Amino acid sequence: MAATPLTNPHTPLLQKTHQSHAFLKPKTTFHYGTSSKPFSISCSSTIQGRPSLRSHSQDRIFNFAAGPATLPENVLLKAQAELYNWRGSGMSVMEMSHRGKDFRSIIEKAEADLRALLNIPEDYAVLFLQGGATTQFASVPLNLCQPDDAVDYLVTGSWGDKAFKEAKKYCKPKVVWNGKSENYVRVPSFDGLELSPNAKYLHLCANETIYGVEFKNYPVPGNPNGVLVADMSSNFCSKPFDVTKFGLIYAGAQKNVGPSGVCIVIVRKYLIGNAQEITPGGLKEVEKKNERKAGVLYNAIDESKGFYRCPVEKSVRSLMNVPFTLEKSELEGEFLKEAEKEKMVQLKGHRSVGGMRASIYNAMSLAGVEKLVSFHEGFPGKAYLIHDSLYITAIVLLCLCTHFMFLLWFDFGRT
Ligand SMILES: Cc1ncc(COP(=O)(O)O)c(C=O)c1O
Questions:
Q1: What is the phi/psi pair of residue 373, to 5°?
Q2: Between residues 329 and 35, which one has the greater pLDDT?
């Protein structure tokens, strides 16, 4: 790739490119992964031989952070050069449609490179996710087991401990070994481990970033149908490993393979699609829940025989804000007071409109809406029942009148 001439008005944003950097040289071929086949990836890095001090630019420091960590200079410079105009597209990657063909080619290449690098078989999916590795502490149990399922955790440091604590919210995890009492200085012998025979997975942190404890080989789950899950955040792509030993591997990118913001998950495809019911499933799922909640409330209003009214046309009724009025507006104050006693607040309509308004945003549970509906039905005990019984009385009177009329007419006919 040629260096971009820095002659545009935004030159100050683009630091000087160093002609001597590796990315300007021909592609380098690496031997990596468990595959014996060499392959090349174009985003090459100078890892051959002993790193020379001279290859380190004077305006860069040596950053020993545990992550976000130092990135290869040649990668930074290539990103810098491509940021202004990605391969003649006239825009940077940050401006492209994430569904467009340019971005797709970037992400597909990233996946293909990773598959080649780690020799990832076809029956594994590679996911580039947001939320950091921390999100996987919840995502793993949410996707791999049900609330009553047993799972095993090997705790060799504080990241493994955090993962275990998060799993407690979603299933029945057991710590099969904990190195805390020894200040996390070792990994246990696998022979003595009391692994659960029915655990859906065995979780470990392949490299505990804080304590510096790294697994050099891996245990096998106690359950022959269970899988091994590893948090590889801080040693991902630092050495070859056999992906097929694992059901799921996750790693925040910000240590060995990129900047922060991406978490890579490599997961056996058959493990996908069994998420617990409570797992957030994107906006389609959110919409379904909101439709259900709003449906329950609007139905109750519409079936109240006019006692409650929603003024909005049915086809455009909001799933978020449900305005309604009471047939007897003088009861509104009492409605609000009684609702508050029942721990339901902020039901007063906007001052410019009056009436009531129930805002049922995403976090409002169905239980909350159901409580409001049953309050609706019971409120105000008397008025609503009187209202209802008036209907019944009117119907009964009408029937009786008809009956008498009929009898009169019948008697009249006989005389
Ligand atoms: C081993 C390990 N797991 C998980 C995490 C959390 O990663 P993130 O910050 O991407 O959520 C870290 C962060 O340093 C880590 O070192």
A1: -65, -40
A2: 329
